[in-house]
Design goal:
The chain has 130 residues and is mainly beta. It has helices at 3-11, 20-23, and strands at residues 28-33, 38-44, 50-55, 60-67, 70-75, 80-87, 92-97, 102-108, 114-118, 123-128.
């Protein structure tokens, strides 16, 4: 797996808030690896298109900013790490590193669960708001 996808999976938490109040917030996504181990969370700000990512110990690992169908990713040191492009008609997102090399994709089902795959199509984990 290359860097942006690793960063996404790790930074996104796969990215722990220990408060049930926070997990009840629909802007919170809990992150799990392919074996369903909790790895962290992400929180989308309701007032803009910024999402912040945290590991399972609630350490900040980076953020993303979305404009239309493109999202740019940054690590905790504010370094640009890559981008993704979403096709809303297919509920699919493709990920690219900062050099525009393809790194993998994700799909989101109707329940809001997003499953991640590397560039070879291997399942790597998921995000869920439940």
């Amino acid at each position: 797996m290359n860097t942006i996808f690793k960063n996404l999976i790790l930074a996104c938490g796969i990215c722990c808030i220990f408060s049930s109040v926070v997990f009840g917030d629909s802007s919170i996504k809990r992150h799990f690896d392919r074996d369903s181990n909790y790895t962290g969370y992400s929180k989308k700000r309701p007032d803009d298109s910024t999402t912040k990512y945290y590991d399972r110990n609630s350490n900040y690992t980076g953020h993303s900013h979305s404009e239309d169908s493109k999202t740019k990713y940054y690590n905790s040191k504010e370094n640009y790490t890559g981008y993704s492009i979403t096709d809303p008609n297919r509920s699919t997102t493709k990920y690219y590193d900062r050099n525009s090399s393809y790194t993998g994709y994700s799909t989101t089902d109707k329940s809001g669960k997003t499953r991640f795959y590397d560039k070879k199509g291997n399942y790597t984990g998921y995000h869920s708001d439940k």
